[in-house]
Write a structure and sequence with these properties.
390 residues; Methane Monooxygenase Hydroxylase, Chain G, domain 1; 2 domains; 15 helices; transmembrane helix
Length: 390
C-alpha cells in the first residue's frame, strides 16, 4: 500500500486591515509629495523671483500702479516644467502679450461690458488659431483677453497692461537664458537607456542562437523595433539642449559636447536600422538550422560574437555618460577598440557561417558595426578599416 503523502500547507498572508490600508496610502502619498516638493524648490524660487521682479520693474521703472499682468505674464511664460526652454517661454510670452493687446484694442473700440467680452474672447480665439495650431497658445491668449475686458481699466490707460505683459515676458526669457540648467542630464540619461536597450537586444540574439530558440529572436526583433521611440526621444532632448546652448550666454561652450552627442545618436540610429534587419535574419537562420547537417552554421560561434558585440556596445553606452570631454574621449577610444575587435571577426569563415542564410547574417552585421564605430567619433574610412577581407 502506497504511503500517504503529507504536505505542509503554505503560509497564508493575512489581509491587511482597513486602517493599515489607509496608513499605507497616506504614507505613499506623503513620500511622493515630499519628493515632488524637493524637486520643485528651484523652479518655485525662480518663478517667485520672476513674478515679483516683473511687478517691481513695472511699478518702479514705469510707474504703473497695479501691474498685475507683469507678474502673471512672467509666471505663465516661465512655466513650471522640468527645465525652462527659451522657445517655449518666447511662444507663451507672445501669446500672453497678444491676448492682452487684442483685449486692450477691442476694449478701446467697443467699450467694456458683457457682450463686448463675448466678442473679444471670440475674436481672440479665432486670431490665436490663425496664428498658431497649439492649444496652449490659444488658451493663453483667450485667458488674458477675457481678464483684460472684464477687469477695470487702469489709471495709466488700457495699453499699459500690454506693456506689463511685455515686461513679464522679457524677464521670463532673460531668466531662462541665464539660468544654469543641467541641459545634458536628460539627453545623457536617454542615451544610456538607449544603449542599455541595444545591449539587451544583442544579448537576446546571442541567447537565441545559443539555444536555437527562434522565439527569443522574435523577442529581440520586437525590442529592436521599439528602439526607434527611444532614439526620437533623445533627439528631441538634444534639440532642446542645443537651443539652450545657442541662446544662453552661460551654456555656449557646451555646444561642442552636444554636437558630438548628436553625431553619436545619428550613427547609432543607422546602426539600429541594420539591427532590426539582422534580428529578422537571425530568425531565419535558426528556423533553417539543421542539426544533422555537417555543413550547417555554427550557431555557438555566432552566439559568442553577438555576446562580444553586446559587451562593446555596453562600453559605448557608459562612455557617453562621462561628464567631462577628456574622460569621455578616453572612454570612447576604449569603446572603439572593443567594437573594432568584434568587427575584425566578421567573416563567414570566422563565425562558422556555412549556409546562404548564415553568410547573409554575417554580411549584414558589417555595416552595423561600421556605424557603431563611427558613433565613437571615427570617420567612415577609419571605421571601415576594421572590416576584414572576405
Amino acid at each position: 500500500m502506497a504511503e500517504r503523502m503529507h504536505t505542509t500547507p503554505l503560509p497564508v498572508t493575512p489581509e491587511p486591515s482597513g486602517w493599515q490600508k489607509v496608513k499605507k496610502f497616506f504614507s505613499s502619498r506623503f513620500r511622493s509629495g515630499a519628493w515632488r516638493a524637493r524637486k520643485a524648490l528651484i523652479p518655485a524660487a525662480t518663478s517667485a523671483i520672476a513674478a515679483v521682479a516683473a511687478y517691481a520693474f513695472a511699478a518702479i521703472i514705469f510707474g504703473h500702479s497695479e501691474p498685475y499682468f507683469a507678474a502673471t505674464s512672467a509666471l505663465i511664460s516661465l512655466g513650471f516644467g522640468r527645465d525652462p526652454h527659451i522657445r517655449k517661454a518666447l511662444e507663451v510670452a507672445i501669446g500672453v502679450t497678444l491676448g492682452i493687446l487684442v483685449g486692450d484694442t477691442l476694449q478701446a473700440l467697443l467699450g467694456q461690458g458683457y457682450w463686448q467680452g463675448v466678442i473679444v474672447v471670440f475674436v481672440t480665439i479665432i486670431l490665436a488659431r490663425f496664428i498658431d495650431a497649439g492649444v496652449i497658445f490659444t488658451t493663453q491668449m483667450s485667458i488674458q483677453a477675457v481678464l483684460v475686458v472684464l477687469l477695470p481699466i487702469p489709471i495709466e490707460g488700457p495699453l499699459s497692461r500690454s506693456v506689463d505683459a511685455v515686461i513679464g515676458g522679457v524677464i521670463a526669457i532673460a531668466i531662462t537664458m541665464l539660468m544654469p540648467v543641467s541641459f545634458r542630464k536628460e539627453a545623457v540619461a536617454g542615451m544610456r537607456e538607449l544603449f542599455t536597450s541595444i545591449t539587451a537586444t544583442l544579448r537576446e540574439l546571442s541567447s537565441a542562437l545559443e539555444e536555437q530558440d527562434s522565439r527569443s529572436s522574435w523577442v529581440a526583433l520586437i525590442e529592436a523595433r521599439g528602439l526607434q521611440s527611444k532614439i526620437d526621444s533623445v533627439r528631441a532632448e538634444l534639440s532642446r539642449a542645443d537651443q539652450t546652448a545657442t541662446y544662453s550666454p552661460t551654456q555656449r561652450s557646451a555646444r561642442q559636447d552636444l554636437q558630438e552627442m548628436s553625431r553619436t545618436l545619428e550613427k547609432t540610429d543607422l546602426a539600429v536600422r541594420s539591427l532590426r534587419i539582422i534580428a529578422r535574419r537571425v530568425i531565419t537562420v535558426i528556423d533553417e538550422f539543421d542539426t544533422k547537417s555537417p555543413k550547417g552554421d555554427d550557431l555557438q560561434r555566432m552566439s559568442a560574437w553577438f555576446s562580444d558585440a553586446a559587451d562593446a556596445i555596453g562600453i559605448l553606452g557608459r562612455s557617453v555618460a562621462e561628464p567631462v570631454a577628456p574622460g569621455r574621449h578616453r572612454s570612447l577610444s576604449v569603446a572603439r577598440n572593443a567594437l573594432g575587435a568584434a568587427t575584425t571577426k566578421l567573416t563567414p569563415h570566422n563565425l562558422g557561417a556555412n549556409t546562404l542564410h548564415g553568410e547573409a547574417l554575417v554580411m549584414m552585421c558589417r555595416p552595423m558595426m561600421v556605424d557603431f564605430i563611427e558613433a565613437t567619433g571615427s570617420d567612415h574610412h577609419e571605421a571601415s578599416n576594421y572590416l576584414p577581407n572576405v
